[in-house]
Specification:
Elements: H1 9-25, H2 29-32, E1 38-39, H3 41-48, H4 52-60, E2 67-69, E3 72-76, H5 77-94
Antiparallel strand pairs: 1-3, 2-3
Helix pairs in contact: 3-4
Length: 95
């Protein structure tokens, strides 16, 4: 099966440019800054002593802020620290 495209060089170039720009604009802000590393569910789980599933559930509940990166979620250092601080406050309230 052969696929053919009926684009002139400039039209194809403009289409590719628009697609790339749209893709970049759809990325979460956390991924656009190179100075800020991002972490996976597994990374956050290791840092907090929780399971990756628990981290995922807490993100769904809004207890930790995550940004979508393709099919996965990533977490910034600030989000992880805020989450840990929130967990610590909850433990102190229960005492």
């Amino acid at each position: 099966m052969q696929v053919s495209f009926d684009f002139a060089g400039k039209e194809l170039e403009e289409l590719v440019r628009e697609t790339v720009i749209a893709t970049i604009n759809a990325l979460p802000p956390a991924l656009l800054t190179t100075a800020q590393p991002v972490y996976s569910h597994a990374d956050v789980a290791r840092m907090t002593g929780l399971t990756p599933h628990t981290v995922h559930e807490h993100r769904k509940e809004g207890r930790i802020e995550g940004s979508r990166a393709g099919k996965k979620y990533v977490y910034t250092r600030e989000a992880i620290l805020a989450y840990i601080a929130g967990q610590s406050q909850q433990r102190n309230r229960k005492r």
